[in-house]
Amino acid sequence: MTAGFSLLLLSGTLLCGLLLHTVSRRGARPEQPSKRPSFILILADDIGWGDLAANQPGERANNTPHLDLMAQQGMRLTDFHSPASTCSPSRAAILTGRYGLRNGVTHNFAVGSVAGLPLSEVTLAQLLQRAGYYTAMIGKWHLGHNGPYGPTNRGFDYYLGVPYSNDMGCTDMPGYDMPHCVPCSMGTQVYRSVHGGCYSKVGLPLLENSSIVEQPLDLWALTQQYKSAALKIINNARERGQPYLLYIALAHMHVPLAPPLPLDDGRVYAASLREMDSLVGAVKTASDATDRDNTLIWFTGDNGPWEQKCQYAGNVGPFKGKWQTSRGGGSAKRTTWEGGHRVPTVAYWPGKIPANTTSSALLSGMDIFPTLLSLAGLQPPSDRRYDGIDATNVLLHGQQTGREFLCHPNSGAAGKFGDLQAVRAGKHKAFYLTGAAEACGGGRGRQQLHNPPLIFDLESDEGEETPLDSGSPEYQRALDRIAEGREELLWDIATDQSVSTADYTTDQSAAPCCDPRHPVCRCHIKTTESSRKRRLIDRSALMCLWLKSSSTQELTAE
């Protein structure tokens, strides 16, 4: 698919809006010290630890050469974990430095959610914005899209992206998914299959700041639009004369995948991974050309692969959760097994972070919040308790010890949302409750309570296959340490006066809708007649590919 026609549709309008917004905000800013570092936080969606080629050299074709180069020139963090193993809770914890039991976000928000991340929570973007940073976000928000809950009301000067996951709305040219979902143009009824459901009542919207600029959006043009906006922000950094935070929450590697065409169905995920890597490479190149020595780029993921998507899901590497998979079900996204929350992570800052280094320090996405504030010379508000730690010494000074404890919340596999069901302490990991997500093919495991807990030694058993003998001295020492740390944390949360509660109420009228008079809320910015015809031609070609792929998948499923 030709990238040029996509830019004719939206890029001119979006980038003009970005430039005008930048100029107006800059005029209202007080002067700030120019030497404060800038931050680029890149968050991949549903990515596996094994998707980063540098994590498994020689295992398969290298689909991440740009990220590998960034790791070679910076630091690879091999024991880094998302704060939760599903979208909204992970993103809320990253931006607040607090577990979901504190910030209130314990499961995903919906298309019709009336609220989002509680307004009592303070985000990283708000604190940096108040300190004189220009703050911009590109990509998936998923923390509330109505009124005060949107990104531009939570600390971001500029926003371009999708308010939630890219499968939470129909498009005219659906990407690759399991099951294949029907285009918006084929009707407004909800389409379902044995593999799950597809949204078709509301088109997937693209927002700029708080306005819908396209609905349904074009998935196949989204990467180029994100790339163009990101490069514009970075290239304007020097002209703005102020440090910046650029938060890029990628659509990759969440389904539906819409990689560059043509390709065969069996290589969809690899092609999507290369496209994601190319975008990261373009961001790095632009950053290096503007303020290389004063910009930290931090790449990580929001959770592990979505196993039920089969060939459209990522690679967990050696973290297979074998104890669970041998009993049925999946052990990645939504679970507390390593594959659900251990994510590929790279930090790059020339002259500050030692090149070609690897850290096995135990860290979490919650640690991004205090670390970036510390590097910016800022303190978080003192009226609340935090769960993140400052990882500056790990990044800059080679310290190999990170967190003493890390808890993993239930993200939908078993029990109550947000409950801290697994605990990591050093090389040991305890499970008080186990459960599985849906596996490829539809298998599920059963929920199981463990008293005493299962404890694994991750140094000798990274696949989490055989728990320690509960009668062994090693088990008892680990249990004593883990139980004490868990109880202290639960008591701290129970007595925390700053705990927030999220409103998960839904209402059909709360769904983003550009024009309710039209099916699926359809609307687009005005385009020329020639670009409209070209778009229809490309849509026809993609529809043929979609029909061919859908037929192949149905035959395979049978």
UniProtKB/TrEMBL annotation:
<dbReference type="Pfam" id="PF14707">
    <property type="entry name" value="Sulfatase_C"/>
</dbReference>
<dbReference type="InterPro" id="IPR050738">
    <property type="entry name" value="Sulfatase"/>
</dbReference>
<dbReference type="InterPro" id="IPR024607">
    <property type="entry name" value="Sulfatase_CS"/>
</dbReference>
<protein>
    <recommendedName>
        <fullName>Arylsulfatase G</fullName>
        <ecNumber>3.1.6.1</ecNumber>
        <ecNumber>3.1.6.15</ecNumber>
    </recommendedName>
</protein>
<feature type="signal peptide">
    <location>
        <begin position="1"/>
        <end position="24"/>
    </location>
</feature>
<dbReference type="GO" id="GO:0033889">
    <property type="term" value="F:N-sulfoglucosamine-3-sulfatase activity"/>
</dbReference>
<keyword id="KW-0732">Signal</keyword>
<dbReference type="Pfam" id="PF00884">
    <property type="entry name" value="Sulfatase"/>
</dbReference>
<keyword id="KW-0479">Metal-binding</keyword>
<dbReference type="InterPro" id="IPR017850">
    <property type="entry name" value="Alkaline_phosphatase_core_sf"/>
</dbReference>
<dbReference type="GO" id="GO:0046872">
    <property type="term" value="F:metal ion binding"/>
</dbReference>
<keyword id="KW-0106">Calcium</keyword>
<dbReference type="GO" id="GO:0004065">
    <property type="term" value="F:arylsulfatase activity"/>
</dbReference>
<keyword id="KW-0325">Glycoprotein</keyword>
<keyword id="KW-0458">Lysosome</keyword>
<feature type="domain" description="Sulfatase N-terminal">
    <location>
        <begin position="38"/>
        <end position="377"/>
    </location>
</feature>
<dbReference type="GO" id="GO:0005764">
    <property type="term" value="C:lysosome"/>
</dbReference>
<comment type="similarity">
    <text>Belongs to the sulfatase family.</text>
</comment>
<keyword id="KW-0378">Hydrolase</keyword>
<keyword id="KW-1015">Disulfide bond</keyword>
<dbReference type="InterPro" id="IPR000917">
    <property type="entry name" value="Sulfatase_N"/>
</dbReference>
